[in-house]
Amino acid sequence: MPMRHWRSATAVTSRGALAEVVELLALVAGQDVEAGQDGIFRIARRVAKDRMISTVDAEARHGHKSRARTFDGYKSHLGIDPDDELITGVAVTPANAADREVIDKLLYNPVTDATSGAPDTLTDADNTDVTDADAAVNDSGEHVDDDLQPKVYEVYGDSAYADGATLDAQTRRGRDMRAKVPPVRNANGYSKDQFGIDLTAGTVTCPAQHTVAISTGRRRQVARFGALCGSCPLRTECTKARSGRVITIHAHEAALQHAKTRQRDPDWQADYRSYRPVVERKISHFIRRPWGGRKACCRGQQRILTDILARAGAINLARLAILGLHSNAGGWAIA
């Protein structure tokens, strides 16, 4: 009886393992084909969203550093204290994950009041099979020393952290996001950045100084210049649309406009530039050849995270030695 039970359990385990293999095979075979109108399956002329790229490492994904530069595997993300140059947080994601998705993990829990323990950290994204991007956080010193006043932390980052939703969300968490909002491009003429958007008045002014009201549609807010474009001397430099130029108002337009205004300030630019060398230097330490460079030393997201934690710990220990870390009767201290 015990022997029959053992065989039954083994059979169940085998069937479960076989089912997993069959499911994986179906996913890999099916993600690159699509059915035509005639019902015949053909190779799809597209890349499947969240495409599985390896049957050995099922969590790995395709990633893009830029349109022309791609990589496969994972991204490692770093949180860095720009003053002490210590790595304060790490995370690992599939290569196709957006850098902004892990910002709260790198900065610990959302900061909501003056008593919250938040790190003086700089978030930075690197990848494991790997690439990089960056951001940073400091106690700004701009808060009032009062238990009722929220504490504001400065977070420095590149354009990967500068979308409207992230800017709004981090502001609500008590973080002053100092990330560069990328310019809006328009191949047919003037970009959206060359239009004056007044959200208070609810108007948009074009480069030819025509002003129209912002209207609210079913899905979004827009400013339509319509007939004004017909006789405009700048039309050929602005739009090719027969119906005239249309400016779409982003759901987080206020946050984007505020960030763009700030980043034109010379003092803001100097402050931003002062932290970038620190970040780049720490990234170069992190991807040194003895650590494996930009290549992961193992497979699987959890194993790579363990490797990244070990790297960060060793780098921090070396940095603490430079800062004069020593042991005394009272414990550990920095000279």
TrEMBL record:
Superkingdom, natural source: Bacteria
Residue span, Transposase DDE domain: 205-321
InterPro entries: Tnp_DDE_dom
Name listed for the protein in its UniProt record: Transposase DDE domain-containing protein
Protein source organism: Mycobacterium innocens
Species lineage: Bacteria, Bacillati, Actinomycetota, Actinomycetes, Mycobacteriales
